[in-house]
Amino acid sequence: MAQGVFHDYEPDGFFDEAFVAPGRPRPHYERLIRFIDQLGDDELARRARLRDASFRTKGITFTLADDADGLERTFPMDLLPRIIPGEEWAGVEAGLAQRVRTLNKFLDDVYAGEQAAIRDGIVPRHVVTSSDGFAREAMGIHVPHGARCLVAGIDLVRDAEGTYRVLEDNVRNPSGISYVLENRAAVARILPRVLGAFAVRRVDDYGPLLLSALRAIAPAGGARPRIVVLTPGPFNSAYFEHVFAARQLGAELVEGRDLVVDDHVVYMRTTNGLERVDVIYRRIDDRYLDPVGFHSQTMIGVSGLLAAVRAGNVALANAIGNGAADDKLVYAFVPDLIRYYLGEEPILPNVPTYLLWNPDQRAEALARLDQLVVKPVSGAGGYGVVIGPRATDAELAAVRAQIEADPRGWIAQEVVALSRHPTLVDGVPRPRHVDLRPFVITRGDDIEVIPGGLTRVALQEGSLIVNSSQGGGSKDTWVLLGDGAR
Amino acid sequence: MLARLAEDLYWAGRYLERLQHTARVLDVTTESVLTSPQVDQREIWERALATLVLEHAFAERHATVDGLTVTGFCVIDGANPGSVASLIRALRENVRRVRELVSSELWESVNDLYLRFFATDVRRDLDDHPAQLYGFVKSAAHAVIGVAVETMSRDDAAQFFELGIHMERAGTTTRVLGTQAAALERRDKTGLEAWAPVLRTCAARETFVRTGRPADARSVATLLLFSPVFPRSVRYSVGVADAHVTQLLDAAAHAAVGSGLDEHPLVARRIGRLRGRLDYGDVAEVMATGLAATAASLETDLRSVHQALAERFFHHTAAGDLQVQEVRSMEPLR
User: CA-CA 20 to 30 A from B287: which of A107, A462, B185, B207?
Assistant: First the structure.
């Protein structure tokens, strides 16, 4: 393969998902590399054009928060899929289930239980109550089965040794599952013979799974609960995903103005008058849900919704106040929470994290800020992250001042040398950093994990920021069945 | 079905129909100006603006009426909600909002129309070969309607979409009669060359020639108002709209939803009466009244049907309602 597509591909000392060394693919990548080599450069370029045309025609797009024109962009899917061997995945899956089970228990404990984890000193009370995502409004609201993180997206990275680590939990409104399904569909169209040569676990059970999970939290009584998907509207960056969810569920996609609460019951306005709603899969943040209940200044929510939820007349997924569990500070306590609630050792380790409100840890972190990653605890989408080794002195001084002014507002983490994966850049495979966001669904008392998830890739050379909002791309992610042969 | 989405579909239908109508009006006007050097260009373009109900909006922005300014205003100007560019945007925005209700093929055909239109140098096409540009818009709009008919199941979503198309079509044909045909009528014009632009604006020239009638106000009015078979006649369009309203109300009654909403829905009465007026209309009466006055009274009826539609299907409120309902105005479609 000296002259093949991969002839000058260099793992370069990072953990590479596909290659052990130049010219030496990992065993589970050997066949894929061979297939791609056989296609050759020209054919790969042709397939890339096919992909672009198909994504644009289908309108699989997102918008950037800071783009004044609200321009739609296609989410770039790299043609080279990521492959995860079945056995390796089994460990990840168990770790994800363990983690989400714990987050559900923690949230139920905080909002509807006796706050045992706080009482027993596992998490300091102030850490929980000072979290931006903590919602006093949710106190005392019960959720059937305690299924509060109905859809969770847990961001994983692999470090220099290839160990999967949890980078952050997303249990409010995780996005990306639509791309998982669309990427698979695109690969099936664009590289049919490659996909067809492998036994890859399906991802399209997501729709039925989510539907049954939503039915499981419906208020008792109704035979066939009416489920709706609540979106802020077409101008939301994840609107495509909301449409996709509604399609998968066969549910109405509603905006706040389509719903009205009358006597603590939620109705939607149909062409034939008002019809009762039982379950809302909401893709609106807590604080915008109900302008009355949350005293917000916007009108995108539904007045009286919170009271209807509290009265038990309607169920919300994900539950209100979940931000208390995916707070970046609470994150540091999740391994202890796993031990506390489940009596098990965490299967997936965290990234080593400094709690900056703790004076000792703060002093240690500030002393070596240039070697750490600093993140705002309430941030999302990669905004506000400072990567020490790449920051200028001025940037470091600025973030140091911010930390000293508001230690609760920041965490510092060791830099993880994110694993890399061959990614086509101008038609040539180049190593690019990747992460993985698997999706976990709480269905009643069961935890279900969609095989694989969304592999995000930092398309710029050397970049560690994979968020789609920051110019990241994605990859189809294959979990092999057995050894993947068929 | 969600009221807001039904309204979006209805308006998507209206925008689509208005789009191809606008392209046709501009196409025919451009050609009339080109091929008849003697005519008063200014008057022709003013009448085109009146046919598109854009005369006031135009006058607010431009002092001179000439081909370049009018077509620029009616095709490219994003600040004009009735321009081809704005209509394509509005159409796509509406279809995008109802994407989970329409077939993927419909969305893709609308998106494709949008992408292709905005990928071309419209200003240059307008200068170099306007007929080709208008032809593209017309055939793309036709293709969208065809795709809808071919790929969408005959459910409420399709009904509201087609209802919008036919309500708009009834309105545009009426408007052509009230402006362009009325002007010829006032001058007692006869002969196909005089009436051809009016007929072509309604894509009716071939159909008319096949009737074998002399080209005059009476024959043209008979076809455009009362033909039971010509798909752009006011009678035909209102008939189709009425059928959709009836089916929507029947479906609601069958599902026993909305019972008690209305025993004799206002919308059914209004559109039924209008249909009767057209089904049993008399062209002699129309000629006695005059085309302009007849068109004006039909427009009033169409507006009242539209209002009843909106009340019955789109705007429902509850006692617990704190929000003010957004009621869309008829602009840019009056």
Answer: B207
**Do B100 and A253 count as a contact with CB atoms less than 8 A apart?**
yes
User: Min CA distance, A474 vs chain B (Å)?
Assistant: 23
**Please, what is the Cα angle at B261 between B256 and B262, to 5 degrees?**
105
ipTM of the complex: 0.78
Contacts of A303 in chain B (CB under 8 A): 320, 322-323
Is A304 within 8 Å of B322 when comparing Cβ atoms?
Answer: yes
- Backbone region of residue A121 per phi and psi (left: phi > 0; alpha: psi in -120 to 50; beta: other values): left
Tell whether B277 lies on the interface with A, counting CB pairs under 8 A.
no
How many whole angstroms separate alpha carbon B97 and alpha carbon B1?
A: 14
- Count of CB pairs separated by less than 8 Å, A with B: 85
- Residue A242 CA to residue A236 CA, distance in Å, equals 9
pTM for the model stands at 0.81
Interchain CB distance below 8 Å, B99 and A243? yes
> Which chain A residues have a beta carbon less than 8 Å from that of B258?
270, 272-273
Q: Which of A234, A247, A275 sits opposite B96 (nearest CB)?
A: A234
pLDDT in tens, chain A (486 residues): 446 889 889 888 899 999 999 999 999 999 999 999 999 889 999 999 888 888 877 766 666 555 555 556 667 899 999 999 999 999 999 999 999 999 999 999 999 999 999 999 999 999 999 888 999 999 999 999 999 999 999 999 999 999 999 999 999 999 999 999 999 999 999 999 999 999 999 999 999 999 999 999 999 766 789 999 999 988 888 888 998 999 899 899 999 999 999 999 999 999 988 999 999 999 999 989 998 887 767 778 899 999 999 999 999 999 999 999 998 889 999 999 999 999 999 999 999 999 998 899 999 999 999 999 998 887 666 678 898 888 999 999 999 999 999 988 899 999 888 999 999 988 899 999 999 999 999 999 999 999 999 999 998 888 777 776 666 889 999 999 988 887
Domain range summary for chain A, segments of one domain joined by +: 353-414
**What 3-state DSSP class applies to B101?**
coil
The span from the CA of B30 to the CA of B67, in Å, is 8
Chain A residue set in contact with B, beta carbons under 8 Å = 56-59, 234, 243, 246-247, 252-255, 257-258, 260-263, 267-275, 292, 299, 303-304
Q: What is the DSSP string of B163-203?
A: HHHHHHHHHHHHHHIIIIIHHHHHTT--SHHHHHHHHHHTT
The residue whose two tokens read 């979106």 is A231
Q: Which of A71, A272, A276 to mutate to test the interface with B (most CBs of B within 10 A)?
A: A272
B153 and A CB contact within 8 Å: no
Q: Residue A241: closest CA among chain B residues belongs to which residue?
A: B100
* Amino acid symbol at B64: T
Q: Is residue A71 packed enough to be buried (19+ CB in 10 Å), middle (13-18) or exposed (0-12)?
A: exposed
pLDDT at B37 > cutoff 80: no
Cα–Cα distance measured from residue A437 to residue A169, given in angstroms and rounded to the nearest whole number: 9
Nearest in space to A219 (alpha carbons), one of A289, A287, A266, A274: A266
What is the least distance, in Å, from the CA of B99 to any CA of chain A?
Answer: 7
Q: How far, rounded to the nearest angstrom, does the alpha carbon of residue A437 sit from its chain's CA centroid? A: 5
Residue of A nearest to B114 (CA): A57
Cβ contact B316–A274 (<8 Å): yes
Q: Where in chain B are the domains?
A: 1-152, 153-316
CATH class of A353-414: alpha beta
Asked if the Cβ–Cβ distance from A243 to B100 is below 8 Å, we say yes
pLDDT score for B257: 56
